[in-house]
Amino acid sequence: MAADAQEGAATVGVTTVPSSDRRAAVSLFSRLRTAQGQADPFPVYEQLRARGEVSRAPWGGLLVTSFDLCDRIVRGREWLEPDKRWREQQGPGTRWNAPSSREMSSTLPALNPPDHTRVRRAAGAFDRGTIERLGRTVSRVTDRLLDSLTERLHSGEADFAALVSEELPIAAIGDWLGLPAADFPRLRELTHDQVFTQELLPSASQLALSDAATAELRVYFMNLVRERRASPGDDPVSRWITTWDAMEPDRDKADEGVYFLALFVLLAALETTSTMLTTTALMLVERPEWWERLAARPELVPGFVEETLRYDAPTHVISRVASDDRLLGDVEVRKDEMVHLMVGAAHRDPARHADPDRFDPLRTPGHLAFSGGIHYCLGAPLARMEAHVMLRGLVARLPRLTLVRRPSWAPRVAFRRIQNLDVALA
Fold first, then answer.
1. Tens digit of pLDDT for each residue in 284-308?
2. Which neighbouring-strand residues pair with 288?
3. What is the edge-to-edge ordering of all strands in the sheet holding 422-425?
4. In the chain, count of helices (H) and strands (E)?
5. Mapping DSSP to helix (H, G, I), strand (E, B) and coil, where does residue 423 land?
6. 2, 145, 204, 214: which has the fewest C-beta neighbours closer than 10 Å?
7. Residue 382 contacts residue 131 (beta carbons within 8 Å)
8. Which of 72, 64, 70 is nearest to 45 (CA)?
9. SS3 content of the chain, % helix, strand, coil (to 5)
């Protein structure tokens, strides 16, 4: 775990982890990074929960596995994002000061108030008119993608992830932003690489991929901002330019503000949504009894999606830092010390959910897949809409599908990604 010392480094004065405990924790995280651990991390999470609802991470900082504590932290104003100030304090040799990490520190998810308040206001929200427009796009694109899937299935097997899950989010957000469809494949590839800088303990090679992808995305979106400034249209980028010009007299800074919003929207709309769509389809294919049930009762679709988000969320780790010295449970936390919310473990916390390893779309929803508090996901309504439309269309238009082979997962811990979902007609 070469990157251990780089994660959550601001831990001066904190009690050290006994060597035996550290070895045990290192062993667990090493298992998470294997192909088997990525495919099924939940036995590891169970062992992490057994260490206590709050435990010391071997690289410094804390691990939180309790649903209640994770929920309180994402909603609490006393817990901050690791922002630009915090990252600079970690030193030039850490992953937090990699070029891609520095770039991300200016996007909305990495900001704290008052900067977060200002930028979120500039971003606007998915109002009723926007959702209706996006809904029409999502329905149209879903029909086209399911047509392609059906045609492929009649000839044999098909990769649902490639044909549907990867295509729908970029088509929806790309159309909204007014991006050329010819750019969609490259933007999708770049997001897969860029997300490594947001990973838990990324390797040097993963950070290099993220740095390169981030640099290319900067060029792409800065060019887009200049084009829209020269020739504005009826699109969010043009509207953000008007908003930022009213907020920021420096033209270059205003353009950067618009760029960071566009970058954030693309990354937020693609990576986790694609994973959510693929995981939802996997849950359905593995449970054939639900195929007929959802076809007969489409009103159960939202519950199925919410349970998928609990059962295997797209994001398994959320990180925050303490705004001051405090107690978390019975563990002392110092100002600027990082806490890693092990959301994948918290979602299976038996204190929150009875029989948590059972997939039950009829249970009362309860998850942190979209975070919480002031950082609650801006695109949650769009992500849910895409999942609902896709799932309703799938069960209404196709006969039951079966897995051809077990899917494979990308080499990640925090951000889940199923790389393939090969299916055939049952």
1. 999 999 999 999 999 999 999 999 9
2. none
3. 158-159, 422-425, 401-403
4. 18, 10
5. strand
6. 2
7. yes
8. 64
9. 60, 10, 35
